[in-house]
Amino acid sequence: MFDVAGRLALVTGSNRGLGNALARGLVEAGAHVVIHGRDAAAVATAADELRALDTGKVSTVAFDVTDAAAVTGAVEELVEQLGVPDILVNNAGVQRRAPFTEFDSADWDLVMATNLSSVFYVSKPIAKAMVGRGSGKIINIASVQSQLARQTIAPYSASKGGVAMLTKGMAADLSRDNIQVNAISPGYFATEMNEALWSDPAFDDWVKKRTPAQRWGRLDELIGTLLFLASDASSFVTGQNIFVDGGMTAVV
Ligand code: NDP
Cα(194)–Cα(235) distance, rounded to whole angstroms? Predict the structure, then answer.
């Protein structure tokens, strides 16, 4: 029921960080995973590391998720070469921090394009191909910030709230074609994106006190939910946003 062996999966932003951990989980489960990022060399290095696991299969693709035309071209090529993905994980994302009154407009555009518009750009051509086949799994990586705001990251919170609603909207349109669209909302996991947070003792202390589990998440703790949403086990689960956050969003 949870088997994803042989399934073709594209994980955006998988050359490092959380996306890389998600890709690793799928490769270890025997899937054929397409590793993605902007820099072909960095993507190739990450792919080689996953190939060394000697499970599943690994391919690569490089494109900027904020460039709608580049996305369409790359996705068309991918489908032509490898077939229609069974699983799409929209993970690529970016963070910018500043007080609201000082937030740079270009940074607002970047955050919205990378975190929200990209989900539309990448999903649309793949969903179209999935509809033609009559099956598919789309998993959007949102955040606890899809539900809770925090100082200095209003644009990020807006983008992730958008991802949660886009997930519902996509489910509304695609579920009749046997495509399940869900979101995973991670709590705090130490990656490059939030180095400024985990390297700050005061923030580290805050995360541990604010999270009922009293610790940061470990990247492999996202894999169980990922495999559930990527496999037949979730064939009647769609439009949901599952929080993998050690209980953070359950408490004040
Ligand atoms: P990282 O900064 O470690 O990695 C970001 C990834 O996204 C990289 O692979 C990067 O590729 C890719 N990416 C960024 N911008 C673009 C772009 N324009 N085009 C293509 N790829 C791009 O971040 P995380 O791993 O921490 O975050 C991954 C996702 O998880 C994000 O959506 C984030 O919001 C979400 N998340 C993270 C949490 C955490 O605690 N870390 C908590 C909740 C959600 P490149 O190397 O080319 O830059």
Answer: 33
